UniProtKB/TrEMBL annotation, chain A:
Keyword match Transmembrane helix: yes
Protein's cellular compartments: Cell membrane
Pfam (any one): BPD_transp_2
Organism this protein belongs to: Litoreibacter halocynthiae
Tagged with keyword Membrane: yes
Source taxon at top rank: Bacteria
Mode of membrane association: Multi-pass membrane protein
GO CC, one annotated term: plasma membrane
Entry's transmembrane regions: 30-47, 54-75, 87-106, 118-135, 155-177, 189-205, 256-277, 311-331, 343-362, 369-389, 409-426
Protein name (record): Amino acid/amide ABC transporter membrane protein 2 (HAAT family)
GO MF term list: branched-chain amino acid transmembrane transporter activity
Automatic annotation (TrEMBL), chain B:
GO cellular component, one term: plasma membrane
Top-level division of the source organism's lineage: Bacteria
Pfam families associated with the record: BPD_transp_2 (PF02653)
UniProt-listed InterPro entries: ABC_transp_permease, BCAA_transport_permease
Primary localization: membrane
Transmembrane regions: 20-39, 51-71, 77-99, 111-132, 168-186, 215-236, 305-325
GO terms for biological process, alphabetical: D-alanine transmembrane transport; L-alanine transport; L-isoleucine import across plasma membrane
UniProt organism field: Litoreibacter halocynthiae
Protein keywords: Amino-acid transport, Cell inner membrane, Cell membrane, Membrane, Transmembrane, Transmembrane helix, Transport
Alphabetized GO MF terms: L-isoleucine transmembrane transporter activity; L-leucine transmembrane transporter activity; L-phenylalanine transmembrane transporter activity; L-valine transmembrane transporter activity
PANTHER family membership: BRANCHED-CHAIN AMINO ACID TRANSPORT SYSTEM PERMEASE PROTEIN LIVH (PTHR11795), HIGH-AFFINITY BRANCHED-CHAIN AMINO ACID TRANSPORT SYSTEM PERMEASE PROTEIN LIVH (PTHR11795:SF371)
Entry protein name: Amino acid/amide ABC transporter membrane protein 1 (HAAT family)
Length: 434, 336
C-alpha cells in the first residue's frame, strides 16, 4: 500500500465518521457493517475478474446460497415436519441427484450413437417422474404442517458461525456446476450462464417452502455466540451504568454495542480473507493466474491447463461471495428471498470492484466501503436535489410530484454513470493493480 | 376420448401463446445476435433497450389517445411504433457515439464491452423507471379478440374454446413482416451485404473499402427497430414492467445462443425453441389429458412438469444443454 492508498482509506473512514457526527452513529455503524460485508463480496469478485478475467454476473445467486446456508445450519430442526415427510423429501432429492449422475454415467460409458442418446433420455425422463412422485408427496406433507409458523424442515441447529463456511461450500458447489459447463467456451457464455443460475437460485428459494419457507421468510435466526441481544443488555445493570457514564441512554447504547460486536466479527473475517488473497496474489499461483489472464494462448503453450485454473479460481471467488452472503443474513437475523435484487447484489458489487481497482485486493475493499456509502447516501441526496429543482414549481403540479417520487431511481442512474465514467477515464480504478 | 377437444385445449393454452411468445423472443434474439455478429459483444443492455423503446411507444400512444387518434380495431400503439423506433434509434446511436465508439477504436477485449453494456443497462433502466415508473402499464386498446373463446364454442359446438387475442395475431403478423424486411435488407441491399461482409471477416471488409462506422450506424438503427417492435409486442400481449424486460434478457440470450450467436436464422429458430419449451413445460396438461385418456385413468394431479415460477429454469437448462453438447448452437454460429 502506498501513501495515496492509505489516504484514500482514511478518506472513506472520514466519510463514515462524518455520517456518525452529522446523522447518527447507528446509521454510521450500519454502513460500516454492510461495508465490511460488501468488501468481502468485492474481494471474491475481484479474485474472479481481477486475477483471472472471468465475468461472473450471478453474484446474487452465490450470496443467496450463503443466506440459505444460515437457515440450513442454524435453525432448529422441526420434528413434526421431519416425521411426516422429511425422509421422503430427502429420498426424492437423492433420487433426483441419482438420475442426473446415472445419465452422466450413461453418457460417459456407452459408445456414442443413437442407443446412448435414447438410454440417456429414458434415464432422465423416467428418473424425473420417479423423483416428482417421491418428492412431491413429501413436500406436500411437510408444507401442510403449521404453515403459518413453520412448514419447513428447519436446519441442523448448529452454531450460526458454522453457517459461514457452509455458505461458502454451497456457493462453491453451484460454481462448480456452472464452471464445468460454461468455462472453456467464450467469455460471454460464463456471464450468461451465471446470470441464469442466479435467477434460478432465487426462484428456488422463493418457491420451495419446505426448504426456506419461500416468500414467508425465515425469521429469528440465532445470533453468533458472543453477540448479545439488545434486550439483555438493557437489563444488565453494569451495561446501563457504563452507557450512562458515556452519556447514552441504554436503548441506543445496546444497539450500538451489538453493531460494534458484529463489526469486529466481520472485520476478523475480512482481514483473514484479505491476507489470504494477498498471499495468493503474490504466490507463483497468482502470477500464473495473471499470466493466463493476460495471454491465454501463451500460458497454454507453457503447459498450463487454462480451463482447470479458471474453474479453480471461479469456485474460490464464488465461495467467498457465499461466505459474505451467510454473514449478511446473520446480520439481518432473517432470510428474505424477495430481498435479493440483481441490481443490488450483482451489479453493485461489480461497480465496487471496478471503481476500487480491479486486480488489487485493497482496491476492492476500498471500493466496497466507498460504493456502499454512496449507495446509502445517494438516495437522500437525490431527494434533496429533486426538492431543490422543483422548489420553484407550484405544489400539486404533476411534474413536481413525479420528480420527487422518482428520486428513488436516482441510484440506478448514478451507479451506471459512475461505472461508465470509471471505465472510460480511469479503467484501472482508484487503487490500480501493481 | 375426445381428441378434437384435446387438440383445441392444447392449441389454446400452448400453441397460440407459444407462437406469440416465440415471435417476441425471436425479434429480441435477432437484435442480440446482430450486435454480436457486427459489434462482437453480448449486449446486456438489450432488455432495457426494449424497455426504453416500449416506453417511448407507450408515451406516444397516450398522447394519441388523449388527442382522440385511434387505429380502429387495432391498438393505437401500432401507430406510435414508428415514432418510438425513431426515438430509440436516436438513443442507441447517441449511446454508441458517447460510449461504445471509444472502446471500439481501442479494440478492447469483448468482455470489457460486455461490462460497458452493463453500465448502459443501469442507465437505461434508471431512465425508464425515472420517466414512466417501475409499475405495470397496460396500453393495449382496440378490439381484444380475433376469436373469443365463446364465439369459437358457438361456431364449432365444441366444449373447449380457442381464443386468439388481437395482440397475438398482430405479434405474429408484425414479426413476419419485420423478419422479411430484415432478411431482404441483409441479403439484397448494398448496405446489408456490407454488414454481412463486416460480420464475416472484419479485415477483409475494411480492405474492400467498407466504412465500418456506417455499418455500425445501420446496425444500431436496425437493432433499435427490432428491440422496439419486440418490446412493444411483448407489452401489448402481456404488460409493460421495466423489471420484466430486464428478466427477458435470459430467454433472449438463450434463444440467440441456442440458434447460434451471430446467425439471424438461428435467432428465430432459437426464439421458438425456447418459447415452446417454456410454455410446454410449465403448462398443466390435466385438461388435455382428461380428454384423451379414458375416464377411469383420469389424472389426479395437474400434470405440470414444472411450476410457472421456474420458467427461467427452462431456458437456462436448454442453454446449458446446448453449451455442453453443441456450443456453436443448432445452426452454426460464429463462436466457440
Amino acid at each position: 500500500m502506498t501513501r495515496r492508498d492509505a489516504l484514500l482509506f482514511v478518506f472513506v473512514g472520514f466519510l463514515i465518521l462524518g455520517t456518525g457526527f452529522t446523522q447518527s452513529w447507528n446509521s454510521a455503524l450500519l454502513i460500516l457493517n454492510m461495508g465490511l460485508i460488501s468488501a468481502i463480496m468485492a474481494l471474491g469478485v475481484n479474485l474472479q475478474w481481477g486475477l483471472a478475467g472471468l465475468f461472473n454476473v450471478g453474484v446474487m445467486g452465490f450470496v443467496a446460497l450463503g443466506g440459505l446456508a444460515t437457515v440450513i445450519t442454524a435453525m432448529p430442526a422441526n420434528a413434526e415436519e421431519w416425521s411426516v415427510g422429511g425422509v421422503r423429501v430427502l429420498a426424492g432429492l437423492l433420487l433426483g441427484a441419482g438420475t442426473v449422475i446415472a445419465a452422466i454415467m450413461v453418457y460417459q460409458k456407452l459408445p456414442a450413437g443413437r442407443p446412448r442418446t435414447l438410454t440417456m433420455l429414458a434415464t432422465l425422463i423416467g428418473g424425473f417422474f420417479l423423483f416428482r412422485f417421491v418428492f412431491d408427496g413429501g413436500v406436500e406433507a411437510v408444507e401442510a404442517v403449521n404453515p403459518a409458523a413453520t412448514g419447513y424442515l428447519g436446519g441442523l441447529g448448529l452454531p450460526i458461525l458454522l453457517a459461514w463456511p457452509v455458505g461458502g461450500l454451497l456457493a462453491a458447489g453451484a460454481a462448480w456446476i456452472i464452471g464445468k459447463t460454461a468455462l472453456g467456451l467464450r467469455s460471454d457464455y460464463l456471464a450468461i450462464a451465471t446470470l441464469g443460475i442466479a435467477e434460478i437460485i432465487i426462484a428456488v428459494m422463493k418457491n420451495e417452502d419446505w426448504l426456506s419457507r419461500g416468500v414467508k421468510n425465515v425469521v429469528g435466526l440465532p445470533r453468533p455466540t458472543g453477540v448479545p441481544y439488545e434486550i439483555d443488555l438493557q437489563e444488565d445493570a453494569g451495561f446501563v451504568e457504563t452507557a450512562a457514564g458515556l452519556g447514552l441512554d441504554p436503548a441506543t447504547a445496546s444497539t450500538l454495542y451489538v453493531k460494534l460486536v458484529y463489526a469486529a466479527l466481520f472485520a476478523v473475517v475480512l482481514i483473514i480473507l484479505l491476507w489470504l488473497a494477498q498471499k495468493a496474489l503474490s504466490s507463483p499461483w497468482g502470477r500464473m493466474m495473471r499470466a493466463i489472464r493476460d495471454n491465454e494462448v501463451a500460458a497454454e503453450a507453457m503447459g498450463k491447463d487454462v480451463t482447470a485454473r479458471h474453474l479453480q479460481v471461479f469456485i474460490l471467488g464464488s465461495a467467498i461471495c457465499g461466505i459474505a452472503g451467510a454473514m449478511m443474513t446473520t446480520l439481518d437475523g432473517q432470510l428474505t428471498p424477495t430481498g435479493y435484487q440483481p441490481l443490488r447484489y450483482t451489479f453493485l458489487i461489480w461497480v465496487m470492484v471496478i471503481v476500487g481497482g480491479s486486480g488489487n485486493n485493497f482496491g476492492s475493499v476500498l471500493g466496497g466501503f466507498l460504493i456502499w456509502f454512496l449507495w446509502v447516501q445517494v438516495e437522500p441526496m437525490g431527494l434533496a436535489l429533486m426538492q431543490l429543482i422543483t422548489a420553484g414549481m407550484s405544489d400539486g403540479f404533476w411534474l413536481k410530484q413525479h420528480l420527487i417520487d422518482s428520486a428513488a431511481h436516482m441510484r440506478l442512474l448514478t451507479m451506471g454513470v459512475v461505472l461508465l465514467l470509471v471505465l472510460r477515464f480511469s479503467p484501472r480504478g482508484l487503487i490500480p493493480e501493481r | 376420448m375426445d381428441f378434437l377437444n384435446a387438440i383445441v385445449a392444447f392449441a389454446n393454452f400452448v400453441l397460440v401463446p407459444g407462437t406469440a411468445y416465440g415471435a417476441q423472443l425471436a425479434l429480441g434474439a435477432l437484435g442480440v445476435t446482430l450486435i454480436y455478429g457486427i459489434l462482437r459483444f453480448s449486449n446486456f443492455a438489450h432488455g432495457d433497450t426494449m424497455a426504453i423503446g416500449t416506453m417511448f411507444v407507450i408515451l406516444i400512444t397516450w398522447g394519441f389517445q388523449s388527442a382522440g387518434i385511434s387505429f380502429g380495431p387495432l391498438p393505437t400503439a401500432l401507430l406510435a411504433l414508428p415514432f418510438g423506433i425513431v426515438l430509440t434509434g436516436l438513443v442507441l446511436v447517441g449511446t454508441d457515439k458517447v460510449v461504445y465508439q471509444f472502446y471500439r477504436q481501442r479494440k478492447v477485449k469483448p468482455v470489457v464491452l460486455v461490462m460497458v453494456s452493463l453500465g448502459v443497462m443501469f442507465i437505461m433502466n434508471g431512465l425508464t423507471r425515472f420517466i414512466i415508473g417501475p409499475d405495470d402499464q397496460r396500453f393495449a386498446d382496440g378490439e381484444r379478440f380475433i376469436i373469443s373463446a365463446r364465439n369459437f364454442k358457438e361456431m364449432t359446438g365444441l366444449d373447449e374454446g380457442l381464443a386468439i387475442k388481437t395482440t397475438q395475431g398482430i405479434t405474429v403478423i408484425t414479426a413476419v413482416i419485420v423478419v422479411a424486411i430484415l432478411f431482404w435488407f441483409l441479403n439484397k441491399t448494398r448496405t446489408g451485404k456490407s454488414m454481412r461482409a463486416y460480420s464475416d471477416n472484419e479485415d477483409l471488409a475494411l480492405l474492400s473499402g467498407i466504412n465500418p462506422e456506417r455499418v455500425v450506424l445501420y446496425t444500431w438503427l436496425i437493432v433499435a427497430a427490432l428491440a422496439t417492435v419486440a418490446g412493444t409486442l411483448y407489452g401489448l400481449d402481456k404488460s409493460f414492467k421495466p423489471f420484466t424486460y430486464f428478466q427477458l434478457l435470459l430467454p433472449i440470450f438463450a434463444a440467440a445462443i441456442v440458434g447460434g450467436l451471430g446467425n439471424p436464422l438461428g435467432a428465430i429458430a432459437g426464439g421458438f425453441v425456447i418459447a415452446f419449451s417454456e410454455v410446454t413445460v410449465t403448462y398443466a396438461f390435466k385438461k388435455v389429458a382428461t380428454y384423451v385418456m379414458p375416464e377411469a385413468l383420469a389424472p389426479d394431479g395437474l400434470l405440470q412438469l414444472m411450476s410457472t415460477d421456474y420458467k427461467f429454469a427452462v431456458s437456462f437448462s436448454i442453454l446449458i444443454i446446448v453449451l455442453l453438447f453443441k456450443p456453436t448452437g443448432l445452426l452454426k454460429g460464429q463462436s466457440v
